[in-house]
Amino acid sequence: MRASPDPLNKVIAVWAKGGRLAGSCDGIEAHARPGDVSLVTQPDLPHDVQARDLSVTSVVMDPGLVASVATGTPDSDAKPIRFFRFEPVDTAAGRLWQDTVRYVHNSVLVDDDLVNSLVLGHAGRLLAAVTLTAFPNSAMTEPTSLDATDTHPALLRRAVEYMEANVANDIGLADIAQAVHVTPRAVQYMFRRHLDVTPLQYLRRQRLEYARRDLLNADRARETVTDIAARWGFLHTGRFAVMYRQAFGESPHATLRR
Questions:
Q1: Which long-range contacts (CB under 8 A, 24 or more apart) does 124-129 make?
Q2: Which residues of the chain have pLDDT under 50?
Q3: DSSP H stretches of helix in 51-108
């Protein structure tokens, strides 16, 4: 196959399982043989690609989401992304990307009954983050002096109130910052300064608290730890159990048995 499509307006990464792929976009070459990971194109530019006997796992992401994860700004405000190379920065970065894609495929998407918008939002941001880590790009920006400016505790209270009101919704750092009208890095700074945690660590602890409440009130004949964990965005039961024990000093199964 040989193709030269118009801009696809997507961030596309492929993991070759068989055959081979070669292409180019904006003067950057793309190559993938079995076991290789590669980007295919810049999101908003046309590209050329050739493939022979190709079998791949493809990850296709909205560029606004990827830029939002990198900068903490809302999708609509994020600047266009440019990738400097289409191969991973090193072997370890490529392996991390593969491990993450395997986890999402085998754990997050394996059971439709457990996948809700909260879980899918986490998975999308996870894939975007690992892609930004693996492939050198222009979306990562350095903090400005305004981002490190101390913020009044009243803003912290407003951020916490917003998070508590949306604990069951798929929200991220950009949403929290937009709700209190400061930069995402300012939100990170005030949580670290006043609470010694990141905003998303605080949100995760809130969700653990709600999961504990549901475990204590659950009908053991009808609800399981897996069901309740997924309800609050924790699809990997083993990781949920580790975080739960660290937070409450007992396993979620012990709480459910009460």
A1: 124/61, 124/65, 125/65, 125/69, 125/172, 126/100, 127/59, 127/61, 127/100, 127/101, 128/11, 128/61, 128/65, 128/66, 128/68, 128/69, 128/70, 129/69
A2: 141-147, 149-150
A3: 63-71, 91-103
Q: What are the tokens at 195?
A: 């609470």
What are 12's strand-pairing partners? 60
Question: Quick one: which H or E segment has residue 213?
Answer: helix 199-217
CB-based contact 228:215 (threshold 8 Å):
yes
* pTM of the predicted structure, to 2 decimals: 0.63
Query: What's the pLDDT score for residue 182?
Result: 78
| pLDDT for residue 35 | 95
Tokens of 135: 């492939």
pLDDT score of 16: 96
Type and span of the H or E element at 4: none
| Residue 78, C-beta contacts closer than 8 angstroms, at least 6 positions apart | 63, 64, 67, 68, 70, 71, 139
Residue 54 near residue 18 (C-beta atoms within 8 A): yes
Map residue 142 onto helix, strand or coil: coil
Residues in the chain: 258
Residues contacting residue 258 through CB under 8 Å, at least 6 positions apart? 216
First to last CA, the chain: 60
* Model pLDDT, residue 76: 61
Instruction: Give the model's pLDDT for residue 146.
Output: 44
**What is the amino acid identity at position 7?**
P
∠ Cα 43 47 49 (to 5°): 120
**Cα 3 to Cα 9: distance, rounded to the nearest angstrom:** 16
